[in-house]
């Protein structure tokens, strides 16, 4: 019996349903509304969710659907693994965090997160400093925010996330494509749109 | 004579201790193994690893991570990790 709720993120108050499978294959995605905010949830059996590849992907996919379905929505994502016993404690979190949620919704209004990685070929001499400065200069101009991510591989010379207005997304994509020509001895990996994980800062306390 | 031996061995033992704890840190560092897992994932996404290579590397690294985390718990009171 799926009596608990798994929460993905918070949007402006709206009732909707998305026919899709979320974390642990449960669906559909629905909303729980508290005043001007709605949380997107799916049912779930267990309060502890295992962080498998399938589950983290499902978490991202539900958020992406929330952002892109219909006319699109601004979403404040929650970290992976937020479960609630029922709608009541979830609403009380939304009440407690309403200021933070409202501010975050404003900060990321109409924007998505896009990821750009530059991976140098094995024998390349590209260095992180030069690439970092150049790529950042090109992309910052087209974005509302930039966040640096971990360079977890020696070949990874650039790994940043950008907050991009959906109206600017095409121009941003073109700028990323130009990078391919600029750096023939590297591979540019362009990912997204993601929910703006790196650009919201909402601390969620008690479950 | 006994005293002399003891004094002479002192620095050597220290060096060995240091080397040993460095090796333990390197081998049982879950964060560095996690970086290797992410790198493997990235190279797979970019098509530099095929399915078989990816699965093989991934399984090996996950086993290493498991072992590292267990070792960390066992050694947590013996090894001070400095990063």
From TrEMBL, chain A:
It is found in: Gas vesicle. GO terms for biological process: gas vesicle organization. The keyword Signal does not apply. GO terms for cellular component: gas vesicle. Keywords: Gas vesicle. InterPro entries: GvpL/GvpF. It comes from the Archaea. Pfam families: GvpL_GvpF. Its main location: other. Belongs to the gas vesicle GvpF/GvpL family. This is Gas vesicle synthesis protein GvpL/GvpF.
UniProtKB/TrEMBL annotation, chain B:
Residues 51-78 form a coiled coil. Keywords: Coiled coil. InterPro entries: Gas_vesic_GvpG_halobact (IPR054797), GvpG (IPR007804). Pfam families: GvpG (PF05120). NCBIfam families: gas_vesic_GvpG. This is Gas vesicle protein G.
């Amino acid at each position: 019996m799926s009596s608990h709720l798994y929460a993905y993120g918070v949007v402006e108050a709206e009732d909707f349903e998305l026919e899709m499978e979320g974390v642990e294959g449960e669906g559909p995605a629905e909303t729980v509304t508290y005043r001007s905010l709605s949380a997107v949830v799916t049912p779930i059996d267990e309060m502890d969710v295992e962080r498998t590849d399938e589950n983290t992907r499902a978490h991202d996919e539900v958020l992406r659907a929330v952002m892109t379905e219909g006319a699109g929505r601004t979403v404040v994502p929650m970290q992976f693994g937020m479960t609630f016993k029922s709608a009541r404690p979830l609403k009380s979190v939304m009440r407690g965090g309403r200021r933070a949620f409202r501010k975050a919704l404003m900060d990321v209004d109409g924007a998505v997160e896009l990821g750009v990685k530059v991976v140098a070929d094995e024998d390349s001499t590209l260095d992180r400093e030069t690439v970092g400065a150049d790529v950042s200069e090109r992309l910052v101009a087209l974005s509302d925010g930039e966040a640096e991510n971990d360079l977890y591989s020696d070949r990874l010379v650039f790994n940043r996330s950008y907050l991009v207005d959906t109206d600017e997304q095409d121009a941003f994509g073109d700028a990323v494509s130009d990078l391919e020509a600029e750096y023939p001895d590297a591979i540019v990996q362009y990912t997204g749109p993601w929910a703006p994980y790196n650009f919201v800062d909402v601390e969620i306390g008690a479950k | 004579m006994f005293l002399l031996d003891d004094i002479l061995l002192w620095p050597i033992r220290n060096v060995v201790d240091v080397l040993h704890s460095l090796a333990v840190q390197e081998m049982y560092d879950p964060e560095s193994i996690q970086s290797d897992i992410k790198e493997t994932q990235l190279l797979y996404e970019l098509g530099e690893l095929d399915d078989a290579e990816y699965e093989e590397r991934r399984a090996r690294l996950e086993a290493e991570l498991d072992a590292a985390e267990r070792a960390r718990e066992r050694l947590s009171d013996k090894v001070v990790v400095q990063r």
